[in-house]
């Protein structure tokens, strides 16, 4: 039985889909069998970030409506035999899927894979409830900005409350994305430490704001594992997901002090 | 004064401003999220104040804002209670 991980944020545009594609790819690179699910109905995205948009035949709603079997809808990645995408539907009807259906689907998928990764839509409405319904772990993505952190706090509040609807989450970890080292150094951007202090959840990774992400998205080839700042940061996250103790100081964390990591990197930058 | 603060790195970097604003907004979001607690607090305040003056219950409002008039603590959330007085204990009537 695999682990079901939802990648969520509250605010849009903070990097959920990017994280999903890269964490999925990174875990597949490490040899795990991974199924990624785009749960953003009406705003299909993960397929293009993965470069798989031309291969879609069936989608999430087809599977749930019983129009096809799960295996028929799964698209295998170009580079890894153990990495699959279940694409979202472009239907206008966002209520086409219920949380109970998603929970059932997630259970079926985790029979087949080591990791099932759900890309969650923005907001706290139906799509969010669907996405969290089947998951046991939540990775909350934020950027070091006031608005994104505020929304992340709302999401964490919902996920931490056992009385929230459809909430079976028992592990919440934080990804701080789009970090600009120079700005952090100049005290013009909140540091990952600051963000962790504000939100009170454990950090699982820090991703720099890296133009290579834009290039990789242009090509439809995720950069996890590549020799870029963001590529390495995603590898670290994947290793931590699989239970390895990756110190943030090896390019990451020393004990728990991201500060050390940053002062090191900043020295390299300036 | 506010503009000075935004542009002066000495009195407050933009990170410090962000931290202050965030702390406030996270607190108020949380308090604002629980109508039960607000209602409970309202009841308690009403009970206490009513020992001294008679309050118009229907027009009693309790809100949390961040606009504190005291300049030394302009970043702190404030609770504003609006309690129209019906009658004082010395007998003066207003309604
Ligand atoms: N670390 C990063 N560095 C640079 N650009 C990024 C980074 N993370 C995400 N982006 C860009 O930000 C935009 C929004 O990202 P996306 O993953 O689609 O967000 P979401 O799914 O949360 O709406 C995309 O254009 C993406 O390429
Ligand atoms: Mg997205």
Would you spell out the secondary-structure blueprint of this structure?
The complex is a heterodimer of chains A (270) and B (95).
Chain A: E1 3-8, H1 16-29, E2 34-38, H2 46-49, H3 60-64, H4 70-73, E3 75-76, E4 83-86, H5 99-112, E5 115-119, H6 126-133, E6 137-142, H7 146-160, E7 171-179, H8 181-185, H9 192-199, E8 202-208, H10 211-219, H11 229-241, H12 258-269
Parallel strand pairs in A: 1-5, 1-6, 2-4, 2-5, 6-7, 7-8
Antiparallel strand pairs in A: 3-4
Chain B: H1 2-7, H2 14-32, H3 35-49, E1 53-55, E2 61-65, E3 78-82, E4 85-88
Antiparallel strand pairs in B: 1-4, 2-3
The structure holds adenosine-5'-diphosphate and magnesium ion (MG).
The site of adenosine-5'-diphosphate has 17 residues of chain A, from α1, β7 and α10.
How would you describe this protein?
The complex is a heterodimer of chains A (270) and B (95). Chain A has one domain: 3-Layer(aba) Sandwich (Rossmann fold), CATH 3.40.50. Chain A is 41% helix and 16% strand. Chain A is built from 12 helices and 8 strands. In chain A, strand 6 (137-142), helix 7 and strand 7 (171-179) form a beta-alpha-beta unit. Chain B has one domain. Chain B is 42% helix and 18% strand. A two-stranded antiparallel sheet of chain B has the order 1-4. A two-stranded antiparallel ribbon of chain B has the order 2-3. The mean pLDDT of chain B is 74. Chains A and B meet through helix 7 of A and helix 2 of B. Bound molecules: adenosine-5'-diphosphate and magnesium ion. Adenosine-5'-diphosphate (ADP) binds next to helix 1, strand 7 and helix 10 of chain A. Adenosine-5'-diphosphate binds at residues 9, 12-18, 177-178, 207, 209-210, 213-214, 217, 230 of chain A.
């Amino acid at each position: 039985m695999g682990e079901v991980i939802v990648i969520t944020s509250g605010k849009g545009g903070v990097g959920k889909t990017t994280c999903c594609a890269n964490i999925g790819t990174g875990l597949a690179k490490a040899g795990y069998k991974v199924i990624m699910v785009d749960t953003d109905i009406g705003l299909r995205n993960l397929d293009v970030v993965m470069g798989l948009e031309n291969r879609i035949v069936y989608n999430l709603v087809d599977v749930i409506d019983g129009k096809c079997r799960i295996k028929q809808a799964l698209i295998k990645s170009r580079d890894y035999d153990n990495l699959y995408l279940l694409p979202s539907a472009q239907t206008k009807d966002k209520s086409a899927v219920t949380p109970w259906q998603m929970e059932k689907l997630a259970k079926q998928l985790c029979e087949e894979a080591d990791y099932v990764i759900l890309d969650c839509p923005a907001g706290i409405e139906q799509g969010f409830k669907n996405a969290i319904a089947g998951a046991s772990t939540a990775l909350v993505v934020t950027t070091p900005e006031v608005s994104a952190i505020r929304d992340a706090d709302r999401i964490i509040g919902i996920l931490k409350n056992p009385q929230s609807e459809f909430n079976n989450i028992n592990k919440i970890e934080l990804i701080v994305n789009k970090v600009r080292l120079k700005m952090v150094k100049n005290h013009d951007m909140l540091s990952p430490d600051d963000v962790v202090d504000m939100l009170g959840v454990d950090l699982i990774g820090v991703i720099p704001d890296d133009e290579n992400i834009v290039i990789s998205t242009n090509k439809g080839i995720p950069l996890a594992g590549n020799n870029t700042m963001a590529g390495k940061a995603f590898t670290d996250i994947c290793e931590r997901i699989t239970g390895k103790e990756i110190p943030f100081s090896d390019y990451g964390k020393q004990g728990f002090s991201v500060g050390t990591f940053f002062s090191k990197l900043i020295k390299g930058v300036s | 004064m506010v503009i000075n603060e935004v542009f002066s790195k000495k009195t407050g970097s933009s990170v410090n401003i962000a931290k202050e604003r965030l702390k406030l907004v996270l607190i108020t979001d949380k308090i604002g999220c629980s109508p039960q607690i607000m209602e409970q607090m309202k009841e308690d305040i009403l009970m206490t104040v009513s020992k001294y003056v008679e309050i118009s219950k229907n027009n009693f409002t309790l809100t949390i804002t961040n606009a504190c008039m005291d300049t030394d603590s302009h970043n702190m959330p404030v609770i504003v209670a609006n309690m129209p007085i019906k009658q004082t204990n010395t007998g003066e009537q207003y309604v």
